[in-house]
Amino acid sequence: MLESNRVYNGKVISVKVDKVQINGKPTIREVVEHNGSAAILPLMEDTIIMERQLRYPIGKELLEIPAGTLEKGESPEECAARELIEETGYKAGSLKPLGRCYLSPGYCTEVMHFFLATNLAKVSQQEMDEDEVIKIVRIKFDDAVKMILKGEIEDAKTAYAILTYAQKLEIS
């Protein structure tokens, strides 16, 4: 790296502009720094507890699984357990790793950790952040797979979790 300048420090992300050398030539790389996140595939028998949530940057609601940003010092599993309760009001009796992936590695450091939540018990009402508007939706697992394949579920994290779990079911 030839030079690095932090241009923004926010609540969820920071942005830096790096001058680097690639193939012997100087170039600029903009990097969004993110603490990482956790996403949860909450299953009750053959039904997924999902969310319909307005996503301001794209100007529409998306059908998604619960997810959230890791807080300082929090493990991905702790984040998953916390977010599941906050966003859905359900607590997982079992929380198992499902995988992890980088969401946009061309410009962002965020890695998302995925968990399968089963043996769910209703423990509270949703305790969303004040700037969240989330509606709970229950979708049959097989219907969710079909919705992904038809382009009706457009959220990448949701597609990753559902299709990864579907593949694990096929293999076992």
What do you see in this structure?
The structure is a single chain. The chain is of the alpha+beta class and 172 residues long. It folds into two domains: 30 residues, no CATH class; 128 residues, Nucleoside Triphosphate Pyrophosphohydrolase, CATH 3.90.79.10. The protein is built from three helices and ten strands; from the N terminus they run E-E-E-E-E-E-E-H-E-E-E-H-H. The strands form two sheets. Strands 4, 5, 6, 7, 8, 9 and 10 form a seven-stranded mixed β-sheet that branches. A three-stranded antiparallel β-sheet has the order 1-2-3, with no helix packed on it. Strand 5 and strand 6 form a beta hairpin. Helix 2 packs across helix 3. The mean pLDDT is 95.
Which terms summarize this structure?
three-stranded antiparallel beta sheet, 3 helices, single chain, Nucleoside Triphosphate Pyrophosphohydrolase, 172 residues, alpha+beta, seven-stranded mixed beta sheet, 2 domains, globular
